Amino acid sequence: MTARRLALLAALPLMLAACDGGGDPVQQAMREASAKNQAAAVVEGTVSGPEDHSAHTAPAGPTAGDQAFAASEAEMHRLMAAASGETVDQAYIAKMIAHHQGAVAMAEVALRDSRDPEVRRMAQAVIDTQTREIAEMRAWAPAAGE
After folding, report:
1. Quick check: 40 pLDDT over 80?
2. d(C-alpha 82, C-alpha 94), whole Å
3. Main-chain dihedrals φ then ψ at residue 15, nearest 5 degrees
4. Which of 37, 77, 93, 135 has the most CB atoms lying inside 10 A of its own CB?
5. Domain that holds residue 75
6. What secondary structure does DSSP assign to the chain, as a single string?
7. How many CA atoms lie within 13 A of 138 on its CB side?
């Protein structure tokens, strides 16, 4: 493969990420990090392209990473299952608050244990965004007549 073609392949994920001009800042940060990782892997020759999934294998058991998040995941699922409401709207808000609380708890684990600056930046963005959205959902009140 020519150097020019490698450079184009490496730049493609970054160009695609740049085309997404808005949306959730956390999702944007995750897309950017993924694009950078994909570009680096293509340039280094460790990945032949997006279709190469040879490095993706299931772990034999819970990894240290899985264990770090086990308690926060279990608590999020417990809170989501317990959340309810009289209407679909009320139940949605209650369950999403629990879901966002779980995201904040997992991000706090990442901040506590990760040393990767990009992961720490994304975790802080999750905390900031999800905390703001929790406050917005808690402030929501059903429209008159519901």
Report:
1. no
2. 9
3. -65, -40
4. 93
5. 63-146
6. --HHHHHHHHHHHHHHHHH--SS-HHHHHHHHHHHHHHHHHHHHTS-SSTT--TT----SS--HHHHHHHHHHHHHHHHHHH---SSHHHHHHHHHHHHHHHHHHHHHHHHHH---HHHHHHHHHHHHHHHHHHHHHHH--PPTT-
7. 10
pLDDT higher for 110 or 35?
Answer: 110
Are 79 and 101 in contact, with CB atoms under 8 Å apart? Answer: yes
* Total of domains in the chain: 2
**Cβ contacts of 83 within 8 Å, gap of 6 or more:** 91, 94, 95, 97, 98
Task: Report residue 107 CA to chain centroid gap.
Answer: 9
Kindly state whether residues 96 and 127 are assigned to the same domain.
yes
Question: CB neighbours of 126 closer than 8 A, spacing ≥ 6?
Answer: 26, 103, 104, 106, 107
**Tens of pLDDT, residues 102-130:** 999 999 999 999 999 999 999 999 999 99
Is the residue at 34 inside a domain? Answer: yes
- 81 and 141 in a common domain: yes
Residue 43 structure tokens: 């340039």
The reply to whether 127 and 72 lie within a common domain is: yes
